[in-house]
């Protein structure tokens, strides 16, 4: 009796095991509301003063438009490359590649910076617990070397959890989020009632902000506060239903807006503008000390530590999947495309991203100028965020432009809101370029030199164009050749009559 012929199962694929809660966990962790509130409110207050809550509300408007654009595009084409794929198909492969490139490079640099920040927060918490040295080594949070070493340990841990299963990683993130948000809401809610700074309706009036320049500069920073919710769309090929990623991202974004407002109002009820500026990155720790005795006063610092850890992990996950989508189109090398047969995750790409971020962090310890470059890149990352968010929203307006003839509701949802949001971010980005170009009269490798602040994003884009040229003419990537923006081998889903993917069955 002839033996049955075994069919080749093909290369391993990512597993559809995630739901809406997982998307919320990834998006919320990547946005890192507690970290932004804990160390960034003082910076916002430098531009907006007591109108910081108004600025956060104002910045939410275009970001919501961008999020709706992501959701609409995801409904028609779920792809872990998200903006890279959608912009490539709708506008063209060159802007599409740049969208994926700036996300990839920006996240790696952000991870190199966040690793050291995470290490410093961990050391602060250990000092609070009374542990100041180990084996004769002083655990000094102000030491760049020690903070980076602890941060590298954290980076390895989050990478392992990201490789061994994104489902387990999101469960860990959800646990961290529940703890940090509970602490944040308890302390900030209490501050709203017992603070001695009188509340004023002008706090939520953006017209009270001192100048148009302050509004624009503060808006760019506030947009950066919201950055990260789109990480939910990086796992849209691992969700049980293609719409779960969109719902998770939108829920997380609305929650972030609420937390930012509560945090901003609470800080202003307890601190004057001068005190908020003075405390700066230690504002959340100051709030805890002002409202409660030890050990309860250390809870906000513990929440900040959880937020930094979760943010680090949630940066690894979408970056590896974006690189996978680019490798699938052969715009990056095949090493980024390898999916682990057991864990169903892009394991090799995840390890490479961790290694690059770790190398940057280590080099920054020994090369002060490199540390300045990383800090400057983080400060100027708002430019690249405005670029790729704006391009993705514009892709939505271009792709669904026929909706202009399909009624007012569809025209607003598919074209008008995305186009207006894109123009708003392009305008903010253009203003920031002008501001950086005119704020300095000489070049200096310094985080506060405008010309240097412009140089790094420009180098990112030039490097991206060079890599795109290599992919087009040397790799002969189909991404550039087909005119459709993506490889024919990319994952596609059956569509219903309205052009939306049919629900996917849950894998056993």
Low-confidence stretches: 1-10, 487-508
Report the C-alpha radius of gyration, rounded. 23 Å
Q: Which sequence of strands runs across the widest sheet?
A: 1-2
**Global mean pLDDT:** 84
Question: From the coordinates shown, what is the CATH architecture?
Answer: Up-down Bundle
Shape: globular
Helicity, as a percent range: 55-70%
Could you name the CATH topology?
Amino acid/polyamine transporter I
**Biggest beta sheet attributes:** 2 strands, antiparallel
The counted number of beta strands is 2
CATH class: Mainly Alpha
Contiguous helical run count: 18
Strand proportion = under 5%
CATH homologous superfamily grouping: Amino acid/polyamine transporter I
Membrane topology: Multi-pass membrane protein
Keywords: Membrane, Transmembrane, Transmembrane helix
Pfam family, one: AA_permease
Subcellular location: Membrane
Description of the molecule:
Residues 33-471 form the Amino acid permease/ SLC12A domain. It comes from Streptomyces lydicamycinicus. Keywords: Membrane, Transmembrane, Transmembrane helix. The chain crosses the membrane at residues 24-48, 54-73, 94-126, 146-169, 176-194, 214-233, 245-267, 301-324, 345-367, 373-394, 415-434, 450-471. This protein is mainly α and 508 residues long. The protein has a single domain, classed as Amino acid/polyamine transporter I. The protein is built from 18 helices and two strands. The chain has helices at residues 20-31, 33-48, 52-76, 83-90, 93-128, 144-164, 166-194, 212-226, 244-270, 273-279, 283-291, 299-328, 347-366, 368-379, 381-399, 408-439, 450-473, 478-481, and strands spanning 133-134, 137-138. It has a two-stranded antiparallel ribbon. Strand 1 and strand 2 (137-138) form a beta hairpin. Helix 4 packs across helix 15 (381-399) and helix 13 (347-366) crosses helix 14 (368-379). The radius of gyration is 23 Å and the shape is globular. The protein starts with 19 loop residues before the first helix and ends in a 27-residue tail after the last helix.
């Amino acid at each position: 009796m002839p033996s049955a012929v075994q069919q080749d199962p093909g290369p391993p694929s990512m597993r559809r095991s995630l739901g809406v809660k997982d998307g919320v966990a990834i998006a919320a962790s990547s946005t890192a509301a507690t970290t932004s509130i804990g160390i960034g409110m003082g910076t916002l207050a430098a531009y907006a003063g007591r109108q910081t809550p108004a600025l956060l509300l104002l910045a939410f408007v275009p970001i919501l438009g961008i999020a709706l654009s992501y959701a609409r595009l995801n409904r028609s084409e779920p792809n872990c490359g998200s903006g890279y794929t959608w912009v490539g198909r709708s506008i063209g492969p060159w802007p599409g590649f740049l969208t994926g490139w700036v996300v990839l490079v920006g996240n790696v640099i952000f991870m190199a910076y966040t690793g050291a920040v995470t290490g410093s927060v961990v050391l602060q918490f250990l000092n609070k617990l009374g542990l100041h040295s180990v084996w004769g080594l002083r655990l000094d949070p102000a030491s760049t070397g020690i903070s980076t070493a602890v941060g590298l340990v954290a980076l390895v841990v989050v990478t392992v959890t990201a490789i061994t299963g994104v489902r387990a990683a999101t469960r860990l993130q959800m646990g961290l989020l529940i703890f940090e948000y509970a602490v944040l809401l308890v302390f900030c809610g209490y501050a709203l009632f017992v603070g001695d700074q009188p509340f004023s309706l002008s706090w939520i009036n953006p017209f009270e902000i001192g100048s148009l320049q302050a509004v624009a500069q503060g808006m760019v920073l506030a947009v950066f506060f919201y950055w990260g919710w789109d990480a939910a769309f990086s796992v849209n090929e691992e969700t049980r239903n293609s719409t779960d990623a969109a719902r998770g991202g939108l829920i997380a974004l609305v929650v972030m807006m609420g937390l930012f407002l509560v945090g901003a109002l609470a800080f202003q009820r307890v601190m004057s503008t001068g005190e908020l500026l003075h405390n700066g990155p230690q504002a959340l720790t100051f709030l805890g000390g002002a409202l409660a005795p030890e050990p309860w006063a250390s809870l906000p610092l513990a929440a900040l530590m959880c937020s930094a850890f979760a943010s680090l992990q949630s940066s690894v996950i979408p970056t590896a999947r974006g690189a996978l989508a680019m490798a699938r189109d052969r715009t990056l090398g095949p090493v980024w495309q390898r999916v682990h047969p057991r864990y169903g995750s892009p394991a090799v790409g995840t390890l490479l991203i961790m290694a690059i971020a770790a190398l940057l962090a280590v080099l920054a310890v020994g090369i002060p100028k490199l540390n300045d470059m990383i800090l400057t890149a983080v400060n100027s990352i708002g430019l690249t965020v405005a670029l790729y968010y704006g391009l993705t929203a514009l892709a939505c307006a271009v792709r669904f432009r026929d909706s202009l003839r399909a009624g007012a509701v569809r025209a607003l949802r598919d074209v008008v809101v995305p186009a207006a949001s894109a123009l708003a971010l392009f305008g903010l980005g253009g203003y920031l370029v002008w501001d950086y170009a005119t704020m300095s009269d000489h070049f200096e490798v310094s985080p506060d030199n405008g010309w240097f602040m412009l140089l790094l994003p420009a180098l990112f884009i030039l490097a991206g164009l060079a890599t795109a040229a290599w992919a087009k003419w040397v790799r002969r990537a189909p991404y550039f050749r087909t005119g459709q923006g993506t490889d024919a081998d990319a994952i596609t889903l059956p569509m219903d009559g309205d052009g939306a993917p049919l629900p996917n069955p849950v894998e056993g």
